[in-house]
Amino acid sequence: MEDFSIKISAASQYQPEHSSPSDGRYVFSYRIVIENQGRRAARLLDRHWIITDADGRAQEVRGDGVVGEQPHLKPGERFEYTSGTIIATPVGSMHGSYGMIGDDGTRFDATIPAFSLVSVTTMH
Fold first, then answer.
1. How far is it, in rounded angstroms, from Cα 103 to Cα 43?
2. In angstroms, rounded to a whole number, what is the distance separating the alpha carbons of residues 78 and 76?
3. 74 and 38 in contact (C-beta within 8 Å)?
4. Nearest Cα residue to 95 out of 63, 51, 58, 61
5. Residue 26 and residue 87 in contact, taking contact as beta carbons nearer than 8 Å
6. For the domain 6-118, what is the CATH superfamily, name and number?
7. What does the pLDDT look like over 67-113, one tens digit per residue?
8. What is the pTM of this model?
9. Full DSSP string of 5-28
10. Distances (CA, A) of 117 to 5, 58, 95
11. Residue 60 in contact with residue 50, Cβ under 8 Å?
């Protein structure tokens, strides 16, 4: 087991009641689960997202913490939150990283794997 091992999983959901496809506005919520699978505690300091729509337009988002928090995760602990994004096409994707710091001062990035933003409710 590694000293620092942060697992991140994500799921998105289209929000039709907040979207306006005729105006090129597709709203998605996403739920993130951050799990500390390592041997040492760490705090999430900041976030870096790359949000890409179907036309290849990318938005970069950087900021402190997540949903106003900088969660501290001991080994075995998890933190969950829900947030949202808006893109101009019915399909897109998100990925990025969280800047972390271990209790011993070690800084590292935890990768947020890419996940899809899809406005259709059923896929054939």
1. 8
2. 7
3. no
4. 51
5. yes
6. ApaG domain (2.60.40.1470)
7. 999 999 999 999 999 999 999 999 999 999 999 999 999 999 999 99
8. 0.92
9. -EEEEEEEEE-GGG-BGGGTBEEE
10. 26, 13, 11
11. yes
In this structure, what token pair is assigned to residue 70?
Answer: 């900088």
Amino acid (one-letter) located at 59: Q
Question: 5-52, pLDDT tens digit by residue?
Answer: 999 999 999 999 999 999 999 999 999 999 999 999 999 999 999 999
Angstrom distance (rounded) from CA 98 to CA 112 = 7
Tokens of 96: 């990025």
Asked if residues 108 and 4 have their Cβ atoms less than 8 Å apart, the reply is yes
Neighbours of 110 (CB within 10 A): 19
Q: How far apart are CA 24 and CA 88, in angstroms?
A: 5
- Backbone phi and psi for residue 43, each to the nearest 5 degrees, phi listed first: -115, 140
